[in-house]
Specification:
two-stranded antiparallel sheet; Spore Coat Polysaccharide Biosynthesis Protein SpsA, Chain A; seven-stranded mixed sheet; 311 residues; 2 domains; alpha/beta
Amino acid sequence: MSESLSAVVVAAGRSQRMGFDKLLTPLGGRPLLLHTLERLLRTEAPAEIVLVVRPGSEVEMETAIAPLRDKGSIRLVPGGAQRQDSVWAGLQAVADSSDFVLVHDAARPFVTKELVDVVLAAAKLSDAAVCGAPCSDSLKEVADDGLVVQTIDRSRLWSVQTPQIFRTSLLRKAYESALISGVTFTDDTAVVEKMGHPVRIVLYNGINLKVTTPADWKLAELLLQFGDSDFGPGQMLRKHLHDMNNHLTPLLGYAYMLVSQFPEDSREKKFATSIQMASERCQTTTATMQKLVREIFPRKGEPSYSNSLSR
């Protein structure tokens, strides 16, 4: 019997850095929140979704998610003053039969089945897992006066994201301890780490943007538009690469035929071999470009390409 997964989607923030209620504002024609929930439902992983909302916004949220009511179990619960209060409220609403719980930011609308599957697999090994990526930027410690104190060694530093998946009983126990301690946490894995339990991290190279600033909003809008539109740059690139591959396949076949027609060490054979090698390289490059285009401009229901690594 497979172990059940519940999801807690945190949507109780006030969008202070955005300047407007980002979750209920249309992004690419639909509320941002709807994109996130729809993609999470599309993974077919969670048996239930507990949506934690800002107190007083329940009616608006119910209206926003109405189109998804027949696609899965979604229950609304009011959140708290801090993120950890909201997650705790969601945990209390999760079914008692839940084996694992997935915690996800409502402002991350690019969650995929592949991402959920890889984090869940890691959680089944360690009871706690998170996706992320090694820090690529240089990191500086900066004083209050704006002067750099020191450069931080980034070789072992990772930036973590959501979804984060835990054995439900473990996360509940960790949050109970956190409430007693009175310490404030902004990340669920930190709550588990504080209890002394190890967390497994998996590398995810796919698009997992958190929409926080106006610049993020514009980027998310472009990614959604180009990924779904038949006339956007993503689909045009797909078409041209497909056509290129169709032209390269017979060219490669002709090159093989030519190579076999000429004597060894002849000038003609060397020329034909050069054509063959160039065709092979072009075909390899085209395949790589197609993979990148699928990642940057995914179609609806199409998993993004990612590379995962557990440690």
